# Entry
Amino acid sequence: MKNIIILISLALSACASPFKPITEVDLKAVDGVNVISSIPQSNIERKYILSNGGANAGAQYGFFGSLVGAIIDSSVNEDIVKEANLDVELIIKALADYKANEVIESALKDKIDQTSLFKISGFQSSLTDKEKSSGFNNLLLIATTYKLSQDMTYLEIRSEYTLSGIKINSKNNKPQKQQLYKNVVTYNSSQINETNKEKLKSAWSENNAKLLREKIAEGANQVAQMILLDLNGHGLAKPEPGNKVAKHIISENEAGRLIYRMQNGELISEPTKI
# Structure
């Protein structure tokens, strides 16, 4: 029996490649599914944008100008990262007894167990040394972040996942590892209507970060639900190229949240009223 392993890694994610739906041919490469969850992010973070203004300004002065620009950027970016970390210190303290990783992992396990495409063979939270050294023939890698937005008004949870499996190469008739599927899902919480940073810190941290705990739990379930919908092929029909409709609804719940499939295939969960 072939085995496919799902590695759920909550880490920084990159941009998704063009949408490629799972096909019946792809599914022939999938039988048993082992789920492996790895969550390296231990605390809530705030999104930030790094600067490269110094490098751009120095480039006109040649090699030495570029070096000066890079030094400026390094200093500016260090301050940006430091500020982002300071902004969430109070919030992290309020979340001290809250196991966000376990909440997310539990939601993922519950939903993935419900997929109609794969037989789930097992779920584990780490890799053994033997598993790390031997590698995998079949792999679904899911990389996720959970962060407050740059302006700290809402929570974003984003997962990118890539499925690789063993298929027969039509040219040489030999088994070969191939990418079968790749997509991204994003949860955006409702926003706090506030612009003052100190008041936002207070809103997220007060009452033992009650609001943030609620949003993390909601976001974990929404991300897991979107992955389940996507893997089960729900709402695969997309707007035709050139169609002005950039997204269409594939799910709506009682809490007033909509799940959209974008033109590029990505799924997004947003409140009906932001």
Observations:
- Confidence is low (pLDDT under 50) at residues 11-17, 54-72.
